[in-house]
Amino acid sequence: MKAFFIIAVITVLAYWFWRGIMKFMGMFSDHAEEIFYDDGRLLSQSEERKSAQP
User: Fold this and answer.
1) Of 45, 46, 23, 17, which is closest to residue 36 (Cα–Cα)?
2) Single pTM value for the model
3) 3-state DSSP: the chain helix, strand, coil percent, rounded to 5?
4) What three-state secondary structure class fits 54?
5) CA 35 – CA 16 distance, rounded (Å)
């Protein structure tokens, strides 16, 4: 159980580290910013906003 917890923490840290890199690169490159925003959660939220508007 301890090993699973350690793997979960490493996975979360790696995810946020990758997101941070993509956001930082987004300041210099539009392509990197597109990759950063091409996130399932952000994409679904933007779709919900579109459907909510008349």
Assistant:
1) 23
2) 0.40
3) 85, 0, 15
4) coil
5) 14
